[in-house]
Each structure stands twice: as structure tokens, then as C-alpha cells.
Amino acid sequence: MSISRRNARRSVRILGLASASAALVLGVSSQALACNIRDFSAEAVCTGDKGQIVVTDIDASKRTATVTVFLENNGADEKQVGEKQVTGAREGAKVSFDEDWQANATYRIHVKVPGLVDEDIKDNLKTPANACKKEDSPAPSDSASESAKPSPSETKPAEESASPSDSASESAAAPASDVPSNAPSAAIGDSNLAETGANSNTGLIAGVAGALVVVGGGAVYFGMRRRGAKNGG
User: Fold this and answer.
1) In what helix (H) or strand (E) does residue 4 lie, and over which residues does it extend?
2) Confidence of residue 42 (pLDDT cuts 50, 70, 90)
3) Are 79 and 101 in contact (CB under 8 A)?
4) Torsion over CA of 190, 192, 196 and 197, rounded to 10 degrees?
5) Which residues pair with 227 in a beta bridge?
6) How far apart are CA 116 and CA 229, in angstroms?
7) How far is CA 212 from CA 100, 162, 201, 209, 219, in A?
């Protein structure tokens, strides 16, 4: 049984339609799997008190991308933070850049995949309002430190405050010889008799008394010799 030309044309048409449909499906699928800038995202995070810029790649085609991070200032690049490569993964592949970012800073992230992507992540990254590094506690003000200091009266040594009583005790402990007295002081060189109350004429009186004793004894002696001479004559 021969196939008519009409049936042959119909078969070719159906085959062409099926091929076109398959090509369209493959094209859409390949576009869906192709790497593009929407596969990349960035965030500013803290690791302890250190800051990081983390870029995530969810490219299911597992292309290798070069990621470059720039710090922005007034719409221009201030510095390049770093440049690293990342291989995409459906579950998300991450690449981190150590950066001590400040609050409300702006970063531009550029992604390059040869033949597919060469552009920035849409919308620049803006860091949170609070930086990672904790601020140091403010030092106490001078007025507070001065008020905490003890007053001069409190810091005055006990020895100084006790000085009046010390002077009183010193005056009380002064020798009795320093106290003025109405009694006559003993003359320098006086004998013990002078110390017992005898006056300074005692020696003269004793001399006169001794002389009188001698004179009286002589008179008695001469008187007795005269009496004996008369009796003998």
C-alpha cells in the first residue's frame, strides 16, 4: 500500500512541529538553568565583634563566578574590600569578605561569569544601623571623680587633729623644775647645812666660839698657876 503525498506532507509537518516544540522546551530549560545576576545576593553580618560581607550564589549550573566588593562613598568607589571566586550551588554557596564595616555604610558587589554575567548585584548593600564592635563604656566625668574624692577634712592625718591634746600632754609632763617657785634656790657651792636651812654665817660663829674657848682655857690655866704660886709661898 503506497503512501500518498498528502499523508507524507502531513507526517513531515507533524515532525517539524514536534522538533520545534522540543527545541523550545530545551531553550527555555537552558535559560532557566543559565547563571544570571539574580542568583547572587549579599548581606553584612557579624562574627563576634568582627564584621563580614557575605555573598551567596544559588546558581544551579555550578558556574564559577568572580565576586568583587567595593566600599562606596558619595556614589564612588572609596576602596576595594576584596575579590574572591565562588562556585554556584542550588542550596547556595557562600563567600565571605572580612570587613570592619561601619553602621549605615554602602557596598557595591560586582559579579563576573565569563560569557554570562558581568554586572553589579542590583541595589547596593547597606549595612545595619548598629556596627559589630561594641562601644566602650564612657569614662567617669571629672565632676563625678572629684565628688568621689574625700574632702580635705576627711583626709587630714589623725596626728594633726590630735595636736592640741599632744601639746597639753607635753605641758603636763614638763619637769617640776621648769615650774616657777617662790622658795629661794640653794646657792652654788653651799654645804649640806645650807640645804637643811642654816645660813651662811655658821662658819664665822664657829670660829669665834673656838677662839673664845682657847682664850678661856688660857685664862683658867694662868689663874691656876697663880693660885698655886701663892699657896706655895
Assistant:
1) none
2) very high
3) no
4) -30
5) none
6) 185
7) 130, 71, 17, 5, 10
**Whole-angstrom Cα distance, residue 67 to residue 154?**
68
- DSSP assignment of 111-180 equals EEETTTEEEEPSS-EE--SS-SSPPPPPPPPHHHHHHHSPPHHHHS-HHHHTHHHHHHHHHHTS-GGGS-
Q: Which of 106, 146, 102, 150 minimizes the C-alpha distance to 124?
A: 106
Q: Is the pLDDT of residue 208 over 90?
A: no
**36 forms bridges with which residues in the sheet?**
none
Instruction: Output the CA torsion sign for 111, 113, 114, 119.
Output: negative
Question: Residue 76 is placed in which grid cell?
Answer: 564612588
Q: How confident is the model at residue 166 (pLDDT cuts 50, 70, 90)?
A: low
DSSP reduced 3-state for 67: strand
> Residue for cell digits 516544540?
21
Residue 55 to residue 33: CA distance in whole angstroms: 20
Q: Which pLDDT does position 216 carry in this prediction?
A: 83
Q: What is the distance between the alpha carbons of residues 138 and 1, in angstroms, rounded to a whole number? A: 102
The C-alpha cell that represents 6 in the structure block: 498528502
**Contact status, residue 58 vs residue 71, Cβ threshold 8 Å:** no
